[in-house]
């Protein structure tokens, strides 16, 4: 799952914002990040790039030669944004200083995302998307094949998440569907995930100003009436202590704006349109505590390769998804994923049977089955020619990342099956503390490849 991430102000002009129109204060230049498509004949380099999510960008008035903020701290400017549509007309989204402000750097095939970047003011975290070109996200459908990348999490302690995942976003960021969105994919618009986040400033080309409530834990964030939902395939949620991969199907198709019960908020978690829990495979949670971590079988003090295979019913990209397999490669050795040691749960991959057994063993609600299982997750990859690749670094204001690397939920004993997910203490992950104690943390993703089975590693 992907929870909200945040940044602080940049000088007196830059604020955490999103928009649909385009400003001219800073030229938008997308960092290059080469990737590869592979077949049995070899791999072909793709001239791909990355773009910063619109929610991190400065939002200001469209008035000529004026730069009044449309959003400051955790509040909208009510004069410029009296309602959602007027706000979209009055406000412009500007270009980004990727390295100087956001700590985002790329060289060849490697992308580095820094946790805290201190300039005139402090930036915390970031989220970027892989682009086919300057106006379109790269759509990827790995069904019947595999997706592979190298990762370095040696500089990610407890409480942080260096995530790489697929989101059911539109290739153009929603520009064609919503004419008021003139910024499109070029400025990182159109985000959605299975948590149906309410902190996104613009959804469906309109400002999310209605019922906007400032966050009680983050001075630069808030939430509005609407959420933005879509299928999500978490290939990689990890730090140096724990990792999980998790499909999150939704009953909807593509990016969908939600309100009320369909968002699945609060006590209605399982009444919404998306499976917020997903069906996760975390080696530590599944009983093998020596497989992943510092000095363990997959040694997180060094770079390694992550291979995820999407097995279909007929072996092609048109078949139904029936299994998601995981492999690792480090120092020239290929490792199969660790197997479950839970007595009633067998296997080392995600299947519908594994998910049903795991949910029963851990006493969890099987919303994964209710929302369509692996077949629906596979259907999301077929929609619009694939899904959008997201990469991020973030801390967790909602649950302190305990669901990934510690014992969670806190109202259950750590000895209860499924509660302990990693070795981190339940006191770790407090955003204010980790931002102060580990500001130089970072994650590095490199050598992104996708294609036929056993061709990318």
Automatic annotation (TrEMBL):
Source domain of life is Eukaryota
Q: Catalyzes what?
A: Hydrolysis of (1->4)-beta-D-glucosidic linkages in cellulose and cellotetraose, releasing cellobiose from the non-reducing ends of the chains
Q: Which species? A: Morchella conica CCBAS932
Instruction: Keyword check for Methyltransferase, yes or no.
Output: no
GO terms of molecular function = cellulose 1,4-beta-cellobiosidase activity
Name under which the protein is recorded:
Glucanase
Q: What is one Pfam family matched by this protein?
A: Glyco_hydro_7
Family per record: Belongs to the glycosyl hydrolase 7 (cellulase C) family.
| E.C. numbers | 3.2.1.-
GO biological process terms held by the UniProt record: cellulose catabolic process
Determine if NADP is one of this entry's keywords: no
Signal peptide residues on this chain, from the entry's feature table: 1-19
What InterPro entries would the database entry show?
Answer: ConA-like_dom_sf, Glyco_hydro_7, Glyco_hydro_7_sf
SUPFAM superfamilies named among the record's database cross-references: Concanavalin A-like lectins/glucanases
* Keyword entries, A-Z: Carbohydrate metabolism, Cellulose degradation, Glycosidase, Hydrolase, Polysaccharide degradation, Signal
